Each structure stands twice: as structure tokens, then as C-alpha cells.
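Retry 2 of 3 after timeout on previous attempt. Resubmitting C-alpha cells to design endpoint.
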């Protein structure tokens, strides 16, 4: 079965060649997403500067978009789109130029432009209609299912990353050095699948699309649970809580049924493997203990947040410079901060991973880029969210699946950035996600229609 069929696209009367030609421009986008299923190399990718296959595919994606626009003489972006997507580059450039480490500034500038400007803009330029959106959304769900299956197997067989003295943490193929990677892509897939499960199918879509999407959302709840990622749980819960009412009153019962199925699947499959339910219960309870009796990871995070704010107070407008947080950390952090976190399991030996960021994207940008960079970057996300919601309210029922997915993904990412930041192989998926959200918010459909 083709990916086009999975997301409900017409089969073109069995003519494979025209269908392949129609969707060939999306190949770099799909490669950027699907290559994340490959096992990651040991070590911290973001720290070592290694280029992953997904990063390489994202570079091809950008080049493909530029070549297509030049060859077909297309206007790549409207003025409004260029302003929203390109404005953060100004903050990146200023932070790089004022950095005390020019080499790190240039490296950081290129990375930030890749993730937050170039790749999202290229996705906007390559996607032509909601069918293209559906193909990319299907690839995200497929990646989530693959990573989720690997993660669930790791948990069930005690071959995952080390957690509380046992190798039960689901990390997929990302390994213990990127414990958030699997949780992130699984959450992406769950949010997208929920959007397609709630929306009215478009004309020509197969009848099984909705139940298949609902089943995918329920299945993905299991690996998400055994990822033991509190920030991911919070972001997913908020995104789902907002997506359901956006789908309309008639969809509330269907959504409640899907969420109940997801909860039941989680209880049966997780609880069936022994002490997993108790571990998850303790992890959930710890969310409410962040002020009364926080664990060491939460204490370290508070210390890192305080260090980031201290850097910003010293350089309020432009920050300390891109990639400068690790160098400035010890001069602003309390003595009780751990220098690194312990990692191991999932096929890798014990290692100490240095704490190189505040684990909060907003504070990372504020500390390294100052108020200028943080305002431009976060302001762009806010603009995309407002424009996406506005377009979703005006969209006909047959086009709301893409909108629910795009708005849900952006809301999830904006929430999760309160507990995480960019880094590791999964960052390539984040760049594509921002492109999907930007396409929905900024793409101008023909008058009187919604493609």
C-alpha cells in the first residue's frame, strides 16, 4: 500500500508513474522525516557537530525548493510569509555578530537558520495543497509508529535506556543520549493522527481513514507513556485538549472515545508488563512535586533556568552569543548543579552527558540572543498560531484535517519548548513540523476554495 493511499489520496486509476511524478517534489521532505528511523550514532549529536542523514536530507530539501522556484519562475513566498519566516534570522545574525566566540556564533547561526528559517520556508514552497500536506503527515505518523514499536519492545524486554536502575525507558532508535527523541516524534504522530481522526474526511478519502487514524493515536499512547517524559506528556495533553473542541461539537464524543481507547490501551499493555504502571504513576505524581520536593533532575533544571536568566540580565538586548550557554553556565549557576546526567542502556554503555542547555527553548534563546532574538523567534510562532487558528475557523469541513494537525503540532511544540530545546537528530522533524504549521497559516488558497 502506498503512502498516498494511507492518507486518502486518489490512486490515479492505477497509473503509478503520474502519481509518482505528482509527488516527486516531496521526496526530500519525506526523506528528512523517514531517515529519522535509522539508528542514531552513540553520543550527543548536537554537541559533537555530527551531521545526521536527516540533516543532509534537509539540506537537499532546501536546495530542491530553491531550484524549483528558479526553474518554474515561481514567487517563492508572499511578503507576509517572508516577514514571518525570515524575521528570526535578524536576531540570529545579531547574536552571532556580537558573540565573543565568532566560530561558535557562525555555527549557531547556520543551525538556527536551518531549523527555524530555511527548512520551514522550503516546506512551504514545496507543498502545493492539502494532499501534499497529507502525504507528509502520513510520513510523520509512519515514523512515529516505527519508533513507538521499537520503544515499546525496549520497555517490554527491558532493553531500553536506564531509568531508576532498570533498562525500561523507551527511546526508540535515538538511544539513551537523546531520551527525548522518540517521545517527541511519537507525540507528533499522535497529534497528527488525532487531527485526522476528528476531521470530516475529504471527498474521495477512504472510509477506513478515520478509524485507522484513531487506532494510530491509541497505539501511540503506549510508547509515549513508557518514554517517562513528563514534559512530553504535558504538551500532548494540552494539544489534544485544544484540538478536540476545535474539531467541533459533533466530534467531542468521537474524541472522548478515541482518548478512552488510548488510555485503555496504555493501561492494558503497560500494566501487563509488571511494575510499569507503578513507575508511570510515580512519574506522573512527580509533576506536582516540582516545588515541594523536586527530584535531582528538576532541581538541576531550575538551576539551569536561573543561570539562563542571569546571562540575560547581563546582556539583555543581544544575549551572550549563539552557542555560548555552555561556556557561560558555570559562571552563573549555583554550586549544587550537576555537571552531567547519567545515561546508559539501549545498546550503549554507561556515559555522562553534559548539561549544555537550560532545557527550555525560550530561556536558551533569551540567554544567547537576548530580548531581540527571543521576541522575533517566539513572536513568529505566535503569529503562525494566530493565523493558523483563524484559517481553521474559516476552513470548510473537508479541509479541517490538515488544519487540526498543523495547529495541534504547533501548539504542542510551543508547549514542549517550555521543558526542552533543540538538539539531537529529532530536530530535523521539528523543522519540518514548523514548515507544516507555516504552510497552513500562510498558504493562500484560491478564492472560494480550500485545496
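Retry 2 succeeded. Sequence:
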Amino acid at each position: 500500500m502506498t503512502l498516498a493511499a494511507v492518507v486518502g489520496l486518489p490512486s490515479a486509476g492505477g497509473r503509478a508513474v503520474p502519481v509518482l511524478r505528482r509527488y516527486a517534489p516531496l521526496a526530500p521532505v519525506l526523506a528528512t522525516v523517514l531517515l529519522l528511523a535509522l539508528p542514531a550514532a552513540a553520543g550527543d549529536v548536537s554537541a559533537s557537530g555530527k551531521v545526521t542523514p536527516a540533516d543532509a536530507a534537509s539540506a537537499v530539501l532546501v536546495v530542491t525548493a530553491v531550484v524549483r522556484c528558479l526553474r518554474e519562475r515561481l514567487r517563492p513566498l508572499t511578503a507576509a510569509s517572508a516577514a514571518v519566516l525570515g524575521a528570526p534570522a535578524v536576531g540570529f545574525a545579531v547574536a552571532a555578530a556580537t558573540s565573543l566566540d565568532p566560530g561558535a556564533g557562525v555555527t549557531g547561526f547556520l543551525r538556527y537558520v536551518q531549523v527555524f528559517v530555511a527548512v520551514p520556508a522550503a516546506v512551504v514552497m514545496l507543498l502545493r495543497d492539502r494532499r501534499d500536506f497529507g502525504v507528509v503527515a502520513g510520513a510523520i505518523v509512519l515514523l512515529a509508529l516505527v519508533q513507538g514499536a521499537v520503544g515499546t519492545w525496549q520497555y517490554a524486554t527491558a532493553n531500553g535506556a536506564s531509568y531508576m536502575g532498570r533498562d525500561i525507558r523507551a527511546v526508540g532508535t535515538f538511544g539513551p543520549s537523546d531520551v527525548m527523541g522518540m517521545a517527541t516524534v511519537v507525540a507528533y504522530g499522535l497529534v497528527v493522527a488525532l487531527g485526522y481522526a476528528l476531521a470530516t474526511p475529504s471527498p474521495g478519502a477512504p472510509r477506513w481513514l478515520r478509524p485507522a487514524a484513531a487506532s494510530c493515536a491509541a497505539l501511540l499512547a503506549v510508547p509515549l507513556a513508557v518514554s517517562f517524559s513528563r514534559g512530553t506528556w504535558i504538551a500532548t495533553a494540552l494539544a489534544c485538549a485544544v484540538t478536540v473542541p476545535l474539531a467541533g461539537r459533533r466530534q467531542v464524543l468521537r474524541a472522548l472515545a478515541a482518548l478512552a481507547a488510548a488510555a485503555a490501551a496504555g493501561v492494558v499493555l503497560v500494566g501487563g508488563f509488571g511494575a510499569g504502571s507503578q513507575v508511570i504513576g510515580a512519574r506522573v505524581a512527580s509533576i506536582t512535586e516540582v516545588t515541594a520536593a523536586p527530584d535531582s533532575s528538576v532541581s538541576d533544571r531550575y538551576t539551569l533556568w536561573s543561570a539562563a536568566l542571569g546571562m540575560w540580565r547581563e546582556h539583555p538586548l543581544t544575549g551572550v552569543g549563539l552557542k555560548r550557554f555552555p561556556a557561560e553556565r558555570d559562571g552563573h549557576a549555583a554550586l549544587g548543579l550537576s555537571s552531567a546526567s547519567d545515561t546508559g542502556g539501549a545498546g550503549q554503555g554507561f556515559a555522562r552527558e553534559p548539561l549544555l542547555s537550560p532545557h527550555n527553548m525560550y530561556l536558551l534563546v533569551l540567554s544567547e540572543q537576548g530580548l531581540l532574538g527571543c521576541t522575533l523567534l517566539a513572536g513568529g510562532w505566535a503569529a503562525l498560531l494566530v493565523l493558523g487558528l483563524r484559517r481553521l475557523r474559516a476552513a470548510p469541513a473537508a479541509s479541517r484535517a490538515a488544519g487540526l494537525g498543523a495547529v495541534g503540532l504547533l501548539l504542542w511544540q510551543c508547549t514542549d519548548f517550555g521543558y526542552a530545546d533543540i538538539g539531537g537528530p529529532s530536530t530535523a522533524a521539528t523543522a519540518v513540523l514548523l514548515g507544516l504549521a507555516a504552510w497552513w497559516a500562510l498558504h493562500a488558497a484560491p478564492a472560494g476554495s480550500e485545496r
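Attempt log closed. Strands lie at 161-163, 166-169, 340-345, 348-354.
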